[in-house]
Amino acid sequence: MTSQCDFCSRPSPSARYHTHPFSLTTPDQVCGDTPVSNIDELSPVATENFHPTYGTGAIMSPEWLACDTCSQLIDARDLTGLLTHCLTQFQESGLLADPCRNTAMTAAYHQLFRAFFHHLRYREPWPPSP
């Protein structure tokens, strides 16, 4: 199986990013003792304390593969550029009819990428050297 970019789905990723574990959820979706880490108006929850029985939401992998274009945008901390590039790629591949009109998709990816940047730890080359 060929690896692909976790951001725009292009083939041949060239970098792997590591984040602190996190999930995208809201405080009302988790048990009372789960600490919520707020990012502006976002409320991702640290998965170190995420209770899988009581909490709901999307738990993100702490490892993310990125193609050359996405890794350049990530390294520059260019959230808008990353979002625009990914939505354009989705549209060109037929996964999204019109990124300008699909506000729900744009909002979801904006939230995901902001949380990714907030929890980002470090980058390494991909594939790893033998």
Number of domains: 1
Low-confidence stretches: 49-55
Helix content: 25-40%
The count of helical stretches stands at 3
Short description:
This protein is an alpha+beta fold and 130 residues long. 30% of the residues lie in helices and 18% in strands.
What does this structure look like?
The chain has helices spanning 68-75, 79-92, 103-119, and strands at residues 15-19, 22-24, 44-46, 58-60, 63-66, 120-125. Mean pLDDT is 79; it is low at 49-55. 23% of the residues are buried. The chain is an alpha+beta fold and 130 residues long. The chain is built from three helices and six strands, in the order E-E-E-E-E-H-H-H-E. The chain has one domain (15-122). The protein has a three-stranded antiparallel beta sheet with strand order 5-1-6. The protein has a three-stranded antiparallel beta sheet with strand order 3-2-4, covered by helices on one side.
Keywords:
130 residues; globular
What layout of secondary structure does this protein have?
Layout: E1 15-19, E2 22-24, E3 44-46, E4 58-60, E5 63-66, H1 68-75, H2 79-92, H3 103-119, E6 120-125
Antiparallel strand pairs: 1-5, 1-6, 2-3, 2-4
